[in-house]
Write a structure and sequence with these properties.
With 313 residues, the protein is mainly α. Helix content is 79%, strand content 0%. The longest helix is centred in the middle third of the chain and has 29 residues. The radius of gyration is 20 Å and the shape is globular.
């Protein structure tokens, strides 16, 4: 068995173990009671709202690509997005699909580095908007809601994100890894790293495109948070919407850590930790997180024929 296969099986086993432990510790019978009370209309609304976010995300991606004069039709970018969604189900964290999209567009475009880096820039726009929404929600609700650890987590994530953007924009930041690659006698890797960094800096000059992508990112993240809210209503949970603006940014950020397949178990654990602070039962918090995953998985599987028949992978 190769090392990659061992890591794959370990990631899957760990995710199932975490999820199984959470469900068993919360009382399995209570989950069935929550599922039996599912309100289909709210679920359908969440499904189509999530579909809308993916279509708008493809438009945001197109804006960034056009800034570098990389012309790919929007319907084709939609298929790229759905391919990334599908592979997100089987890769660690929530960034595995980004790697797949980056690989596809790298093969598709003539400006390969710029095309691949567009995926990173798009992800940064999205995370920046999401963390900003969470941070503003925290400031607005500070006098009403006392959530010390959550506030600290949001502040740390926001600081880390801003620090990452600052370092990535500095040419001097690249010198150390380039020297390290030179010492390791990996000139091709050093050359590739230089091209990627140069492509990343090029996007910094496209202010109009970044502003458009940023505006769409705020819309997208708001819609994504509303998807969580609709799923909660589908499960019969009466949770004030402000909590979703506080919790979803943290859940999303933690879910990006590549630990288990599609962050299975990790996402449910952080959801339980956060929603339990406002009185949501453990089975309900875990079911809400799983409902989000099922919603994404269902859309990904239904859209599979759109990209599979084109032989993108």
């Amino acid at each position: 068995m190769t090392a990659n296969k061992r890591r794959t099986y370990l990631s899957l086993a760990l995710g199932l173990l975490l999820l199984g432990t959470l469900i068993y510790g919360s009382g399995p019978k209570q989950f069935w009671h929550i599922i039996r009370e599912l309100k289909a209309a709210w679920w359908v609304g969440a499904f189509f709202l999530y579909l809308m976010t993916q279509l708008i995300s493809s438009l945001r991606w197109q804006i960034l690509l056009k800034a570098e004069r990389i012309i790919i039709p929007w319907p084709r970018l939609v298929t790229f997005y759905f391919a990334g969604m599908f592979f997100n189900l089987f890769l660690p964290g929530l960034v595995g699909g980004d790697l797949v999209r980056g690989y596809i567009v790298y093969r598709e475009a003539e400006k390969k580095e710029e095309a691949a880096v567009s995926v990173v820039v798009e992800r940064l726009c999205g995370m920046g908007a999401l963390l900003t929404i969470g941070f503003v929600a925290m400031l607005i609700s500070y006098r009403v809601i006392s959530l010390g650890p959550v506030s600290w987590a949001l502040s740390i994530l926001m600081g880390f994100f801003l620090g990452l953007i600052f370092l990535a924009s500095r040419t001097s930041f690249l010198q150390l890894p380039l020297k390290l690659l030179g010492w390791l006698r990996l000139p091709r890797w050093a050359e590739a790293a230089t091209k990627v960094h140069q492509a990343f800096r090029l996007y910094g000059g496209h202010r109009k495109a970044l502003l458009k992508a940023g505006a769409l990112s705020f819309l997208l993240q708001t819609l994504g948070i509303l998807v969580y809210y609709l799923l909660a209503r589908a499960l019969g949970l009466s949770v004030p919407i402000i909590y979703f603006f506080l919790f979803v940014p943290i859940i999303t950020a933690v879910s990006m850590i590549p630990i288990t397949f599609s962050s299975l178990g990790v996402r449910e654990g952080i959801s339980l930790l956060l929603f339990s602070k406002i009185g949501v039962s453990a089975p309900a918090a875990i079911t809400l997180s799983l409902a989000w995953w099922v919603n994404v998985a269902l859309l990904s599987l239904l859209a599979t024929p759109l990209w599979a028949r084109k032989g993108l992978i």
